[in-house]
Design goal:
Layout: H1 13-53, H2 56-84, E1 88-94, H3 104-112, E2 114-116, E3 122-124, E4 132-137, H4 142-151, E5 156-162, E6 168-174, H5 181-201, H6 206-212, H7 223-228, H8 232-269, H9 272-276, H10 282-313, H11 315-323, H12 339-365, H13 373-393, H14 401-406, H15 413-423, H16 430-456, H17 466-474
Parallel strand pairs: 1-4, 1-5
Antiparallel strand pairs: 2-3, 5-6
Length: about 475
């Protein structure tokens, strides 16, 4: 504490009181400044958040995306509804007489209107009416039946003949592609019919024939399912969530990371930054901008996720009303998913956005014109896209060594570690280690980005490049 002294060098009591008063004012001012600085970041976060979510484009865009998510979830049910109301009319002309003691028309109709159940057994397709209507035609009506196919009154005509050697041969005539789905189903049915006919001509009895096509009981389990203890349905649900989570993380970080950079450029181009620097430090501006815009992204993502979950869960009741059954459509039950996996989607999204948000803010602070933003952000975009494509392409190879190594590289961790956590069984230490690496990387890159942002926000007319970034980051 500074004391005023009298001419004799002794402390004057009055002067001491005045010094104490001045010190108190200085301490109060310092505390007020510290309190004001502590309030700056929440105020900036609030400003950035409201500036985004209150825009008409944000509201309209979110509504459009929610509608698209709901429609996408309903696509399987709509397709099934359309297919259940449509029938393919097929005429079958049998010129081969008896075929393994069967009625070829009934056999083909049965084969076309059955499906394979989850246990590997044939079962009738549950629908209000069969997908195929198979009717018998007479040999003398082949010409008129072919004309009906041309006129669209019939979808296809199948003629069964028997060669001189005794083997069956088939003629298929349709108004659709000969390589389409219907043609493939017809070919499968005729192949089985021909096989049964050959066995019948070899003297195999009907009882023996009926046992030939009984599917064996097959239990399929993968190594990852064995380690994780998941059922095939749970693995399918995990794969779906991981794929959607990776896509969500990629698109959201890419979109809102670019928004962080564009926000800095906009404030520079309008000279607003020079005014804001007088009220808050560049570091506070950067952190507030990243968190505020990030929260706007979380708001939109939460709306999309909620709409998607509700739409998916509504498919079974919707199918019961429209199709009178609960089969078909989306068969993956997301209600049985692990809460931990859903939590990792949120966690890696937050960590990934914080990491890339700081880098986008640093690069954006060096750009003075909006038209230069995309060019300056290109290296970061390509880096993030590399991690995204690796995550998608490695869904079937998450246990390979190179994928494991890349999953601990912080630029790739948000998407790649999420893929590994959802598809394969990880060691207990892998996820915590990846989180620690991400947090350390965020701290380091926030410090570097803060130094770049401090110098870059008031720098005009200079191009952003790696050399300038390193120079600004390492400068005092």
């Amino acid at each position: 504490m500074a004391f005023l002294r009298n001419r004799n060098g002794r402390k004057d009591p009055a002067s001491q009181d005045e010094a104490r008063s001045n010190d108190a004012v200085m301490i109060t001012a310092a505390n007020h400044a510290a309190s004001q600085n502590a309030r700056n970041i929440p105020l900036i976060i609030e400003r950035e958040y409201k500036a985004r979510v209150q825009k008409r484009s944000f509201v309209v865009g979110t509504i459009i995306l929610v509608v698209l998510v709901i429609l996408a979830a309903c696509v399987p049910t709509v397709i099934e509804l359309i297919s259940s109301n449509s029938q393919s009319k097929i005429a079958v002309v049998n010129q081969a007489n008896q075929v393994a003691g069967l009625d070829p028309v009934n056999y083909i109709s049965t084969q076309l209107n059955t499906t394979i159940s989850s246990t590997g057994q044939l079962q009738a397709v549950p629908s209000s009416k069969p997908k195929f209507t198979v009717e018998s035609g007479q040999p003398g009506d082949i010409s008129s039946l072919r004309q009906q196919v041309r006129d669209g009154k019939l979808d296809a005509l199948l003629v069964i003949n028997r060669a001189a050697a005794g083997d069956l041969n088939f003629e298929y005539f349709s108004n659709s592609s000969p390589t389409g789905t219907t043609a493939a189903q017809i070919q499968a049915a005729t192949t089985q019919l021909n096989f049964l006919d050959k066995l019948g001509r070899l003297g195999i009895s009907q009882t023996q024939l009926s046992t030939l096509f009984q599917s064996p009981n097959l239990t399929a389990t993968s190594v990852s399912d064995e380690k994780s203890g998941r059922t095939p349905e749970e693995s399918a649900a995990a794969t779906l969530v991981v794929t959607l989570g990776v896509i969500l993380i990629f698109t959201t970080i890419l979109q809102y990371g670019a928004t962080v950079a564009q926000g800095a450029v906009e404030e520079k181009s309008n000279r607003i930054m020079e005014i804001m620097i007088n009220a808050a430090t560049p570091f506070q501006l950067m952190i507030g901008k990243i968190i505020g815009i990030g929260l706007a992204g979380v708001t939109q993502v939460a709306a999309l996720a909620a709409a998607g979950i509700v739409a998916v869960l509504a498919q079974d009741p919707l199918k019961k009303v429209l199709l009178n059954n609960a089969t078909g459509g989306t068969q993956i039950d997301i209600t049985g998913l692990s809460v931990g996996l859903l939590g990792l989607v949120v966690l890696y999204f937050i960590l990934g956005f914080l990491l890339y948000g700081t880098l986008y803010a640093a690069v954006g602070s060096l750009v003075s014109r909006q038209e230069d933003v995309q060019t300056a952000l290109a290296p970061l975009t390509f880096l993030f896209m590399a991690g995204y494509f690796v995550s998608i392409f490695s869904l079937s190879a998450t246990d390979t060594l190179w994928v494991k190594i890349l999953s601990f590289v912080p630029f790739f961790t948000p998407t790649l570690m999420l893929s590994r956590a959802g598809i394969s069984e990880l060691d207990w230490w892998e996820v915590p280690l990846s989180i620690v690496i991400m947090l350390v990387s965020i701290i380091v890159f926030t410090w570097l980005a803060g130094r770049i942002y401090r110098a870059g926000v008031l720098m005009y007319g200079q191009k952003a490049n790696l050399g300038r970034l390193f120079k600004l980051a390492l400068s005092r």
